Each structure stands twice: as structure tokens, then as C-alpha cells.
Amino acid sequence: GTGADNDLYINQAIVFIEDAIQYRSINHRVDSKSLWLYRWYYSRTCQWILSLTITIILALAFIEKPSSLTITSDVRYRPPAWNPPCGLTESIELLCLLVFLVDVSVKSYLVGWEEFWRNKWLMAYILTLIVSLADWMVSLSYFCREDVRIRRILRPFFLLQNSSMMKKTLKSINSTLPEMASVVLLLAVHLSLFTMFAMLLFARTKDGQQDKEWVRYFRNLPDSLTSLLVLLTTANNPDVMIPAYSKNRAYSIFFILFTVLGNLFLMNLLTAIIYNQFRGYLLKSVQSSLFRRRLGIRAAFEVLSSLKETPANAQQSYVSVGALLQVLQKVEMDARCKQAIMRSLKMCSCDQLSATQFQKLFEELDKDSIKQHPPSPEYQSHFLQKMQFAFGHPYFGYLGNVVALANIVSICVVLVMDADKQPSERDDFFLGAINCFFILYYLLEMLLKILAMGLQRYLSYPSNIFDGLLTVILLVLEIATFAVYGFPHPGWRPEFMGLLSLWDMVRLVNMLIVFRFLRIIPNMKFMALVVTTLLDLVKNLRAFAGILVVVFYAFAITGIMLFKGAVVPLGNASVGRMNSWSIGQTTLMTLLSIFQGKNSLFDANAFYCLLYLLSVHMICRWAKIYFVAWWLISSVIWVNLFVALLLENFIHKWDRRCHREPISDIEYQRTVELMFRDVLEEPTEEELMEKLHQHPHLQLCR
């Protein structure tokens, strides 16, 4: 009937608008039951359950054998880790896999059979689940005693496929690889040529005493290549050149040339190429996201124009304002955007909206998120007005920064004076007294600012929240110190009482005071620009962080399986008498668990030790492939990608800073999509309609 059709069109418009908000594809089923299932699947509860399941299955590696959940990471002293009984982690894993099975089933149903065969991610999802379930059954058949578990390496895929932005980022990286390969090939040529030169330059001579460079680093081709590869990472610099330099200073020219050409020229050239290419591919990805948003809004317009209450027009379609208001009431979107769209509708004098007007309304989604601070209170008293002017003036904030600097300087002076004193000789009176004075000033400053600005306006600034929270914590710690140890006085060195000694309490207070000094950042424009750039990267580049977790996880799990049992702990030898090989072995043992595995992979010096120990002294030379692959992916490719996006974000903010006057009461917040908004091209109506007519489940009236 007419009423049922209208309800279906309303629900379709709601879903299409929500797809546009989240940059989702609209190529899914649009019948009533499918729309209900679709909205349930993308509800906060369902997505939270899915995210929790992904977190649990990734966290299983921390407690599975070999586990590393011990207080100390030193393999010589840590007690045996807890190994869960067979079937415990496997049961949890099975529940997670069943959730993923439901997830992929719902996704496959919603997109339809034809779209399923074109979606490589869904097919890979099903294949990963099949392999994981098969490997899970193999584990149970071996009573959890098998060493190789393929499904552990596949777990990061569940995190990867659940994020559309991560998939776009990975696609962009894949498209950038050919350009990266040209520079990596140039690096390989550079490395190979200098390896040949090194083998000729440091060849074995008749005098064995003068062949230290040959013995240690350039005995054969694999050793020579490894030595120079590690030198490219600067992990063995200057150790690799010391024997040759001791023999003849002129040999340093070889190593200087290698380092300058490799590190200063080729590595920075790689950064430039990655920045240029990846920015272009990321721009294309963001352009496709914009197209999805415009397509979702246009699809909502088309289905709303099919409502029976809308008058037919042979030349142009219209949507009634009442129908749009009905849709907006049910759409889940940001309250700011919804209010702005409704205000625009109320200000509109017409009862119907054309496609252009409809699309223009939803351009509110593309605008910067604006945070306006509440106004200051208006006092009637002349005295309070003067106080408000004095303590609300920027100079009062500058005075607080000077006082905080004086506090830092006083702490530094006391620490320098007491650096060589024994704890029993240290007098905590002076440090305790000055901390008490400065904390009282911080408390007075906070109260006066609240008086001048009002509590709501004061709390609307993140810098004030940071400052006020630390002031309250400092005050609580100071009161606790006085309650336990009394007031400061000359010779103030009471015995240990409570959870922390007096010196521990004073140190904790001093660390918080030093941390509080970061309040100066908002007052230094250029520093504030750098900090906001970093914060935007943290907020908006979660996709990069997710892919980094995927890479770390996969390499750590692979390292556990490859090098399990390769090195035996050294025993309880004293740390002071450990030689370099002992340190290398201790570092290597961290690969035997997922937690220490991640730490080892991030350490450049550990990379040097592990590369030599595993490939030369422990297992075989083929183990070098593992570490070289990690270095290429993490340091050469991934770090340069991060630098490229850091530059892009910083340049964008710098340009906006130069072209717009700063407004103190307004804060602008942008996402990655909005970062490129000024250079994106709007899709034409013909492109949108052509794509809509290709929709596998939506039949348009025109």
C-alpha cells in the first residue's frame, strides 16, 4: 500500500544519509528487513561487540604459550610464566571466531550475491575464517602441543578488515609501492657497489694483526653485505669503522661516503618520493570518500522524491521539507550538524527542495567542527569587574608561566646541590617548603581564573583542564604528605611511613610540577601549532596506527615461531660482568613472547645484535631475511609514510594559520577527509545518477 511504500522510502533515506555521514557504500539491500538488519549491524552496540571481540582475539597472544606476563622481562630472573590449560584460550578463541562468522554472514547477505563475488575483502575474510577454524581443530587434536599455529599470524586481518579507512590506507600504500621500489632498488645498487669496494679495500693480507676489519666485518660477501646494511641503519656506527680507522685514518673516507650517499641523499629522496606519491593516492582515496557522501545524499533525495505526497513533476524532482524533517528526526548524526540543517530548513521559505538545495543542506557535514567557548560572567559589582579584568587578562597567564618557570629552576638547583648526597644526608626542608609555596600559588591562580572566566568558560579550554587537574592532584599530595610526615622544618627527614617515603612523595610532586610546565604551550604560537599537528595525527590517523599494530603483531608472532628455543638463558650472572654477546642474547630472548617481541622489533641496537646472533651464530644466515624485511617495512617504508603525512598535516595547518586571523573564542577541528577539502572536485549530477542507476538493489523511478 501507499503507507507501506512511504515508510520504506523514509527508512531508505535514513540509511542512505547515515551511509553518507560515515562514508559507507550504498550498494546493499534496501528492502525493509534488510534495512533493519543493516541499521542493527552498524549500531553502536553491535560495533562495540565486534571491536571487543577483535581486541580479545589479539590479546590472546599475551597469555598463550609462550607467555611473558611476568613482572620482570629479564629472562635470567623472571619466574616461570603462567601457561593456561589446554582448551581455555581455545574456547575463548572459538567464541571470537563464531562472532566473526556471524559478522561475515551478515555482511555477505547485506551486499548481495553479485557484490559478494566482487568484494575481495569479504572473500579473504571467509578464507581466513576457514583456515583459522581448521588450524583450531588441529590444535585440539594435538592437545595444544603444536609449535606452529597459522591462525595466530592471521589474527591481525580481523582488525584490518573491520576498518574502511585502514583498507583505503593499505590500498594507497599498495599503489605507492612501484615508486618506492625504484628508490629501494637504487639503495640496493648503492649497497652492492660499496660491498664490492669494501671487500677489495679490506681484503685479507699476510699480516694477520692488520686484518681486524676483514675478520670482524668483511670476511665474505654475506658478512660484508650485512655489515654495510646495518651501517645504513647507523646501528653499528662507528664500531664498523674503528679497526680500519685505527690502521689508517684515510679509510674513514669510505664510510663517510657510504653514509652520506645512503642516509643523507637516498633515504631522504625516498621520503620525498613517498610524500609526493602517497599524498596523491591518499587524495584519490579522500576523493572517493567525498563521492560516496554525495552519492548517499543524492540517493536519499531520489527515494524521498518518490513519496506519494510529493507532487509529480516531469522535468524536475522535489522533496518536501516535512519529509526531510521526518527523516532527520530518526537519523543518527552529530547534534551540531543536525541542528544546523534544521535551522537552515526553518529559515527556508519554500515547502519543497530541489536536488541542488537538498545537497547544499548536507554540506554542513563537510565543515570544520567548531567549538565556541561560553561567555564570561557579567558582574554588577565594580570591584569584581576590576578583578575580572585583571585576572582574565593574558598578562596574568604570563605571570603564572613565569612562576612555573621559577618553580622548575628552584627544583633544578636543589637536585644539583643534592646530587651526590646520600639519602640520609639529604635535607628535604627546602624542597618541601618551596613546593608548598608554589602549590598554594597555583591553587590561588586557578581560583582567580575561575572567578574571572566563570567555571563553564574555564573548563571549556583543555589547557585549563590540564592545569586545574594537576593543581588539584598536587594539592591532595601535599595535604597527604603533611598528614603523614608533618610540616616541613629544618632537618626534615622522618622515617618511612605509609605507602611512600617522604622522598618518594617529594619526587612525585616534583615530577607533576615539571609536567605542569607544559601549560606554556598554548601561549607560544609556533609550539602550539606543532602540538596541535601531533594531536590531530593521533586523533585522525588511527588507520595508520592500526596497520602498524598489524605489522608489529604479524612480525612478532612470526619471530616467536621461527626463533623459539634458539637461545638458552644465561643463568644468574651478574649484570655488571655481562659482555656484549650476553646483552645480545638477553635482547634476543625477548622475541620469545609477543610482548617482548614488539619491544625488540622497535630497538635499533637490538636489531644489530639480533641480526648477528641469529643469522651468524645461532641458526642460519637465512634468518637475516626476517630482520631485513622488518627493517624495510618499518623503518624504510612506514616511518617515511608517517613523515609524509606529518608534513602534509603541518603544511596544511601552516597555510590556514597564514590565511586566517586567530580567533581566541573559536577552535577548529578537522578530520583527514577535511584536510584535503579545498582541492577536492565535486562530482557532477551525471556521474551521481549513472552510479545510482547501477545500484544492484535500488530501482529508481526516473
UniProtKB/TrEMBL annotation:
Top-rank taxon: Eukaryota
Listed GO CC annotations: late endosome membrane; lysosomal membrane; monoatomic ion channel complex
Membrane protein topology class: Multi-pass membrane protein
Localization, UniProt: Late endosome membrane; Lysosome membrane
GO molecular function annotations of the record: calcium channel activity; intracellularly phosphatidylinositol-3,5-bisphosphate-gated monatomic cation channel activity; ligand-gated sodium channel activity; voltage-gated channel activity
Annotated InterPro entries: Ion_trans_dom, TPC2, Volt_channel_dom_sf
Limits of the Ion transport domain: 55-278, 397-650
Catalysed reactions, as listed in the record: Na(+)(in) = Na(+)(out); Ca(2+)(in) = Ca(2+)(out)
Membrane-spanning intervals of the chain: 45-63, 92-110, 122-143, 180-203, 251-275, 395-417, 429-452, 464-485, 505-522, 543-566, 625-647
A GO biological process held by the record: endocytosis involved in viral entry into host cell
Keywords carried by this UniProt record: Calcium, Calcium channel, Calcium transport, Endosome, Glycoprotein, Ion channel, Ion transport, Lysosome, Membrane, Repeat, Transmembrane, Transmembrane helix, Transport, Voltage-gated channel
Record PANTHER family: TWO PORE CALCIUM CHANNEL PROTEIN 2, TWO PORE CHANNEL PROTEIN 2
Family according to the record: Belongs to the calcium channel alpha-1 subunit (TC 1.A.1.11) family. Two pore calcium channel subfamily.
Protein name: Two pore channel protein 2
Organism: Chloroceryle aenea
Taxonomic classification: Eukaryota, Metazoa, Chordata, Craniata, Vertebrata
